[in-house]
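Hello Y.,

Per our agreement to keep a running log of every chain we model this quarter, I'm adding this entry. I've kept the format consistent with earlier entries: sequence first, then predicted structure.
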Amino acid sequence: MAENDEELSKKSLCDVWGLVLLRGVLLILVGLIFLVRPDSSLMFIVLVMGAFWFIDGVATIFRSVFGSRDNDHWIWDLFLGVIGTIAGIVVFSQPLLSVILTSTFLIYFLAAVAIISGVSSIFNGI
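Predicted structure for the entry above:
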C-alpha cells in the first residue's frame, strides 16, 4: 500500500511541476525585493495581506451563500467573509495609513480576524 501511495504522490507532483516551479521563482523574487527594497517591503506585505483578505472574504461569502446548506454554521462563514472583505477594502482604500498604523491598528485587527476565524472554525468543526 505504501508503494502505491508513493507512486501516486510522485505522479501528482509531476502533474503540477509547473506550479511548483512558478511558486519557487515567485518566492525568490519576493525575497530579493525584500533585500533590495526593505523600505517598500512593508507596503508590499500590507497590500498582499489586503488582497488576501479581500479575495478570501469574497470567496467565503459566495461559499456561505451559494454553497451547501448542510453546514449548520454557514452564518459564521458569511460573517467571516464580510469581515475579511471589509479588511481588504480598508487596506486598499488607505494603504499608506495602513502601513503607518501597522504596529498598532493592523496588529489588533489581525488579532481580531484571527480570533473570529478561530471561533468560526471551532463552530464549523462542532
